[in-house]
Amino acid sequence: ELSLKRKVKALDQFGYCEKNGVAVAVVLGPEELSKGVVKIRRVATRSEEVVERAVLLERLRQVLAETALE
User: Fold this and answer.
1) Which residues pair with 52 in a beta bridge?
2) How is residue 58 annotated by DSSP?
């Protein structure tokens, strides 16, 4: 999901994910854009991994499949 507010804090968004059962979040901010990467965050464990945007879909499918098994 996406917030339409102008200045949304990442922690508020992660809190929303926790409350609403969102398993995985993809983080794409200015720093990630400049580096050509994204962060995949497992909401329940708060673990993050950085992946290149070129492999995002492949890795995201893997993470979602792993999350479904937990």
Assistant:
1) 37
2) H
Exposed (0-12), middle (13-18) or buried (19+): which is 39, by Cβ within 10 Å? middle
Q: Is 21 left (phi over 0), alpha (psi -120 to 50) or beta?
A: left
Q: Is 55 helix (H, G, I), strand (E, B) or coil?
A: helix
At 19-65, the pLDDT tens digits run 998 999 999 989 999 999 999 999 999 999 999 999 999 999 999 99
Token readout for 6 is 């102008």
Neighbours of 49 (CB within 10 A): 12
pLDDT of 2 above 80: no
The tokens describing 2, both together, are 């996406």
For the chain, what percentages of helix, strand and coil (3-state, to nearest 5) are there? 45, 25, 30
